[in-house]
Amino acid sequence: MSTERVDLAIGKLRSSGVRLTPQRYAILSFLMGTTSHPTADEIYRELEENFPNMSVATIYNNLKLFKEAGLVRELTFGDASSRFDGNTTDHYHCICVSCQRIVDFPYPPLSGLEQEAQKTTGFVIDSHRLDFFGVCETCQQEKN
Amino acid sequence: MSTERVDLAIGKLRSSGVRLTPQRYAILSFLMGTTSHPTADEIYRELEENFPNMSVATIYNNLKLFKEAGLVRELTFGDASSRFDGNTTDHYHCICVSCQRIVDFPYPPLSGLEQEAQKTTGFVIDSHRLDFFGVCETCQQEKN
DNA sequence: CTACTTGCAAACTTTTTGCTTGCGA
DNA sequence: TCGCAAGCAAAAAGTTTGCAAGTAG
After folding, report:
1. CA distance linking residue B132 with residue B96, whole number of Å
2. What is the distance, to the nearest Å, from the Cα of residue B48 to the centroid of all Cα atoms in its chain?
3. Is the CB of A61 under 7 A from strand C?
4. Which of B35, B99, B108, B139 is least crowded, fewest Cβ atoms below 10 Å from its Cβ?
5. How many Å apart are B82 CA and C14 C1'?
6. Strands (E), A87-135
7. Of B130, B142, B93, which Cα lies nearest the Cα of A107?
8. Cα–Cα distance between B137 and A126 in angstroms, integer?
9. What is the mean pLDDT of residues B4-16?
């Protein structure tokens, strides 16, 4: 992918006093350039080659920073570590219960349902998350 | 709440060779009788009074058992430990981003959307989870 | 130059596991 | 009695924190 979106995001960060370091750039650009929804550890191993001395703490620090800046989303499931999604456009997720793969499901947000939930519960809702669980195509074939 | 639903659930368990112990019964009946979506530790502290010697491992073992039997659902969020829901009827959740409270939002399942996701992603979907994030009524008032 | 960041290691939290004793059926 | 379950403690896994040294702006 082009570096444009990454540079734009980094620019946004820098305007609020955040510094640009090679590690930070690498983490963000890896996340924004993949649809694999990696764990912190997967990011760590991916970047290890280029940053042999990088520590996991740096990964976590930056993921937290990106999350707070709204550049990245954290996805958690019961039986595993958090996964991170550098795609913040509208979409939901399908999770394979067999191989844990996460696949994007692009779909317009359920705004009507948010309003419904507001009415029913009295909450002021500002976001929602929808995950589907099932078996991916690859794992379906392996069953044969 | 009445113990009927609990007894029914326990009966279902027992028919598959699972024994009824006082701890097991207490954990399940507490979960089925609350809408507070407690963590394992909260369950532990709640039952501590009646079972001073109970260990956390017992809580976890039983929660796992209940989950596998479909009597209980596990809810996970990024920044905290798992929460457990003894209500397995159709509903979604609203999570307060301020006080972390979880409130049920009864709503018929989005079966149409499951089919849509199947078509788009090639998954065979068998369930989904929908969470709304926002501010609950109590926390809205505290802001004033 | 001076904070912000990194790297490192230790600490912490949550959950799981191994093993012995206890107890439900 | 027999085998599942509880209790206990230690281990595992993921994430956070404190601090010294490095570096971006």
Report:
1. 9
2. 20
3. yes
4. B108
5. 9
6. 91-96, 102-106, 124-135
7. B130
8. 14
9. 92
Rg (CA), chain A: 17
Dihedral (CA of A45, A51, A55, A61) sign: negative
Tokens in use for B67?
Answer: 């989950």
Of chain B, the percentage scoring pLDDT greater than 90 comes to 88
| CA angle, A118 then A120 then A123, to 5° | 35
Banded pLDDT at A80 (limits 50, 70, 90): confident
Of the candidates A23, A121, A19, A29, the one whose C-alpha atom is nearest the C-alpha of residue A72 is A29
Nearest CB to B105: which of A120, A132, A134?
Answer: A120
Cβ–Cβ of A127/B133 closer than 8 Å? yes
Cα(B75)–Cα(A66) distance, integer angstroms? 24
pTM of the model: 0.91
pLDDT score for A1: 58
Query: Mapping DSSP to helix (H, G, I), strand (E, B) and coil, where does residue A119 land?
Result: helix
CA→C1' distance for B60 and D7 (Å):
13
pLDDT tens per residue, range A84-111: 999 999 999 999 998 889 999 999 999 9
With b for 16 or more beta-carbon neighbours within 10 A and e for fewer, the B6-25 pattern comes to beebbeebeeeeeeeeebbb
Length of chain B (residues) = 144
Length of chain A: 144
Q: Angle A56-68/A40-48 helices, nearest 10 degrees? A: 120
DSSP label at residue A2 = -
